[in-house]
Fold this sequence. Notes:
- The complex is a heterodimer.
- By secondary structure, chain A is an all-alpha fold.
- Chain A has a single domain, classed as ABC transporter involved in vitamin B12 uptake, BtuC (Orthogonal Bundle).
- Helix content of chain A is 75%, strand content 3%.
- Chain A has a two-stranded antiparallel sheet with strand order 1-2.
- In chain A, α3 packs across α8 and α10 packs antiparallel against α11.
- Chain A is globular and about 60 Å long.
- The relative contact order of chain A is 0.20.
- Chain B has 14 helices and four strands.
- In chain B, α7 packs antiparallel against α10.
- Classes of the chains: A mainly alpha, B mainly alpha.
- Chains A and B meet through α4, α9 and α11 of A and α5, α11 and α13 of B.
Amino acid sequence: xxxxxxLSINGIAFGMLLFLLGSGLSLIFGVMRIVNLAHGxxxxxxxxxxxxxMRATGSFGLAILGAMGSMFVLGTLMQRGFLVRLGTNVLxxxxxxxxxxxxxxxxxxxxxxxxxxxxxxPPALRGSFAVGEVIVPVYRGFVTAIGGGLxxxxxxxxxxxxxxxxxxxxxxxxxxAQAMGIxxxxxxxxxxxxxxxxxxxxxxxxxxxxxxxxxxDLDVLTLAFAVVxxxxxxSLPGTLAGSLFVGLADNLGKALLPELSYVTLFAPMALILAxxxxxxxxxx
Amino acid sequence: xxxxxxxATIAGLAxxxxxxxxxxxxxxxxLVLIFALLAMSLNLLIGYTGLASFGHAAYFGAGAYAAxxxxxxxxxxxWLAAAVGMAASGLLGALFGLLATRSRGVYFLLITxxxxxxxxxxxxxxxxxxxxxxxxxxxxxxxxxxxxxxxxARGFYxxxxxxxxxxxxxxxxxxxxxxxxxxxxxxxxxxxxxxxGYPVWGYKYAAFVTSTLLAGASGVLHVFLNGFVSPxxxxxxxxxxxxxxxxLGGSGTIGGPVVGAASLVLxxxxxxxxxxRWMLILGVLYVLVVLYAPGGIVGLLRRxxxxxxxxxxxxxx
Lengths: 284, 317
């Protein structure tokens, strides 16, 4: 019983980490119809920057702020400088962002080398606490809380504020939203930067238990894609459901069928798609 | 049609002349042919059907792994291994095609990528069958296969050349047939083709499976060229490179993928000896192609000759 509970707790924590990546990917697609492969690079760079800032200053908070801030800038620059010129052509988006992924991956390899780096957990978040017989590491609880809190905050902003209403309008019909006086291009840039910042946050939060290494960008990108495919592109509740599903399936699969762990994750995804080609919460 | 036949003749003669070159260049030319075959298979989907498959390495790798496994475990001969390899890719394509071809556009791309990653994950983790991260080394190339000299680099090169030439001719016939025009119709407007009474899904599915079979053939050649297959062959970066070859050469043209594959393979081999930052250069190349040469090299050459009838082009970035 404790075995299952431990696995599930780790799965949920991992799922909430994936939510940080998936929500950005999903919102960016929803507002701009952009498929961004470089989303994994924001995670990678965020993690490396987090480790570097933590080493230099010893402050976990500064590491988070620095990584999020720089990824926000990088994301908006990429969107304004390049992606905005491509329109909605999926093929060119994929090739362009693949190019950015390679450039950023090679630059990171150049700067930080090929050895995996691990961010030390700040002292306040070390140790563990017991829930009944199950031991929960404090840090996993912390990541779950941050992810859950952000999910709630994003949902409140989207559903309850004027900005959220504008975003939803832009997702539904960008042209009409523009005609109604909403500044859709500015909104798109801000959403893109926000998505990149969230991925950078995911990198900092994930590096204490996943580590950061060359290739981490594509590893998390694949899982984040699985999240948005299962949940449906452009849907926040879908992203949350997809994150939890992928987090749990990944952890249970690795523990139970290590040789087939990717199959335990992707076979259910394929089945969901066979029934609902646009994901669980996607609009058909 | 005149210039095309001329270009094809020159290309054919040049291809034959490679036999006289030193072994290293013969090896390199074989690599070009193998990736040309992979890019051609992908072009049938991207260029003619309008389906951007982002997981084509899966079928390339499935063919390579299947051929390697039957050779190493059951000591199958070359032709049997080649048949098994292509069958494995075709079956995988037939299975994945059921899931992927129901969609199109961005969903097709995401689904094919995810399915590609499943295959990569299998190769990476199913250590007892695939050797995991180490791959399967030491796949032997027989001295002769049905009388064809195989262990000689030139003999193998000519086999690859034969395979590519046949595939090129078959593809040229297919895309100029009514079937090929139906695929172009689907690329331009799926709903219109459906209204006209075409079984759109059947056409897409047939194109998908055909393409995966060819990708499998290219994977079989690749494993026998290097005697080695590893998860990298199935990786999403390989899928992306195949896609770049198609676009760099010119999607929706017969010769484009061959030009794209040749340019990229040669560039990689030249630059990798000079610099360790090949990945960085490749990344910049992706960006430049998308921004400045969306019609590819063939598109740049064609721009000079004005067309009597402006044609709606294939899917181009």
